[in-house]
Amino acid sequence: MRQIEQLAAEPRQGTGKGHAFRAREKGFIPAVIYGGEGEPANVQLPRRDLERLIEKGSFLTTLFMLDVAGQKTRVIPREVQLDPVSDRPVHADFLRLPEGASVRIAIPVRFRGQENSPGLKRGGVLNIVRHEVELICPAENIPEYLEGDLSGLEIHGTLHISTIRLPEGVKVAKTRETDLTIASIVAPTSVIEEQRAAAAAAAAAAAAPPVEEGAEPAEGAPTEPGAAPAAPGAAPAGQPTSPGATKAPEKK
After folding, report:
1. Is the distance from CB of 89 to CB of 121 less than 8 angstroms?
2. CA 92, 93, 94 angle in degrees (round to 5)?
3. Strand order in the sheet with 158-160
4. Which of left, alpha, beta for 53 (phi over 0: left; psi -120 to 50: alpha)?
5. 20 to 30 Å CA-CA from 49: which of 15, 126, 191, 238?
6. Strand 102-112 and strand 146-149: pairing?
7. Contact 29/45 with Cβ under 8 angstroms?
8. Angle 135-42-25 from CA coordinates, rounded to 5°
């Protein structure tokens, strides 16, 4: 089970841009708690605490026990709004997770077994199709990450979600794809370029018009293998090469 982080908050009086601005001026970040059986609650969190938690990473997949004036509620962050200039948090939304609740959440994917992948040993490149996978998880059993095993994968081999073991009660969110592709081993760039060049040469050869048997070669084309084309204006073989020239008499 994922560890639950502790986070303190204070009730926030009033709503709107003016109240939110005054909260930020005092070093707090406005936030809202919603979901479950309770009504949405307006709270504010210390800016330093929130920024520290965001900088640790995986903030949106971390469970928190939010203490609001002594009343504790299990929540998970659903959205953090950042200032477009300073990139600092300006607002946060938290979803209540009562006992037995499930949540749809994007879980990151990590990989192991690179040293046992024949495709990678031959110079193949790991192509990550999905860095995260949308899962439906019980609140009590949200995984920190999914682990995909690359052992045995050759070039052009693929890793699917069906090969990754999911925690108990966790299932993949419905998508159009029945068995999600997580990653694949693609050929090195040099091999791809060689294949493209070979394919282009084959296409060019197939597109060339065929030469009919017995057809006379085009004007200026060589008549025998290895023969050079005749120069423009040159006389055919055995004919005079200049006006007025006569052919030498044959010896009898």
Report:
1. no
2. 125
3. 125-128, 181-186, 158-160
4. alpha
5. 15
6. parallel
7. yes
8. 110
> Which residues, in sequence order, are CB contacts of 37 under 8 Å at separation 6+?
98
Q: What pLDDT sits at residue 246?
A: 47
Instruction: Identify the three-state secondary structure at position 135.
Output: strand
Q: What's the pLDDT tens digit per position in 17-72?
A: 888 888 888 999 999 999 988 889 999 999 999 999 999 888 998 999 999 988 99
CA-based nearest residue to 62, from 7, 103, 8, 4: 4
Query: What is the structure's pLDDT at 29?
Result: 94
Cβ-Cβ contacts under 8 Å for 126 (sequence gap 6 or more)? 111, 114, 120, 150, 183, 184, 185
Tokens 């293998």 belong to which residue? 225
Task: Answer yes or no: pTM beyond 0.70.
Answer: no
pLDDT tens digit sequence for 126-166 = 999 999 999 999 988 898 899 999 999 999 999 999 999 99
Q: Is the pLDDT of residue 239 over 60?
A: no
| DSSP class of 45 | E
φ, ψ for residue 193, nearest 5 deg: -65, -40
